[in-house]
Amino acid sequence: MERHFHEQLQKLREKLTVMSRSVEESIEKSIQSVMLSDAALAEEVFSMDDAINRMEMDIDDDCLKLLALQQPMAADLRFIMAAMKINNDLERMGDHSVNIAGYSKSLSGPRSVRLMENIPKMARIVRDMVSESLAAFVEGDAGRARAVCLKDDEVDRLDDALFKDILNLPHPDSESVSRSLAMVLISKNLERIADLSTNIAEEVIFIVQARTIKHHSELSLIEDRRAR
Amino acid sequence: MERHFHEQLQKLREKLTVMSRSVEESIEKSIQSVMLSDAALAEEVFSMDDAINRMEMDIDDDCLKLLALQQPMAADLRFIMAAMKINNDLERMGDHSVNIAGYSKSLSGPRSVRLMENIPKMARIVRDMVSESLAAFVEGDAGRARAVCLKDDEVDRLDDALFKDILNLPHPDSESVSRSLAMVLISKNLERIADLSTNIAEEVIFIVQARTIKHHSELSLIEDRRAR
Asked: Is this complex scored with an ipTM above 0.90?
């Protein structure tokens, strides 16, 4: 029973990793669809989202079964609750990719080179945050999780810079306003994905610390007993 | 023990209702801060968010304790998992209010009357969706939840209309572009709150249906037995 349970937890980690890979791919494709104004790529993002939604339901179901059948305690319970939250965060990231791909239509026509450099740059950092936050969870690595939180500031800076670039566009006309709006919204969607990755990273830090604090309090309990 | 457990579930419902009221108030204040360019109101939204974050942690903790100590089965387990998700959704709505209040600075100066009508109109519908989705959860009322889902389409329509209004602004200059960007982002934040309310409503429909399906399958089991 115990061994079976730990196999199931391992299975849960693997499923979340697969889901995370799909989300990373959908982010990549959504940005490509925007950069190349490629409607076929945008369509791929939309159908990937269906798959990601199905993964979410499947993982949610696994968590529910683990809770109902195994009635885990303490650390395992906290782990499954974190898995549920992370599952939800990943699914929302997929929604943001869909939003981004949706703007591929608004972005045909000429674009500022500087803007077109900053969006893929942001996207690269964001994809890395997704992958690293999930790895931090699977390995229970608080250091790796903290590195993700630091990267969030970088994304915020890029998002602000893009906003200012757009405000400083010379001679805005209705065409360029439309493109600028799409740019800002793409940037905001990337920034939300970064926030969701940061949520995951904070969850990991919380779990690891709870374990550490528990460990310490057990140690001090032992010391208390020794002192008696 | 059983009675104690149901009292705790009732307490959970009450805490989520209190949290929802705070979120509704923070949405209201954030929109007011934008409409009146009122920095003091924006500050109130920021400090309300701290309170909302603390509520989230408290409710999360309650859910964890209920799961660990009571080891609930089936319907109760599903209810607690839904409460956890809703708790998370409400906390994120608070974040969106903070985003909106943050734009109060960008929005001083002249504004289009039509735009300034549409934002409060959207906000009213969105606040109503928050309150109704929570009421649907507390009462387990799928009909009320379905009404929330319908309102989401209305919000999407208003968001699209606002986007088009901005694209059709005559003679955009860098000032009006800046205001337009803020408007679009406020509208998108309201739309995200509407989406989160729809998540809650869908969760309620899912719970009620699961109960109904289970009830039906138990009925058909009885009928199967009778048929034998």
From this structure: no
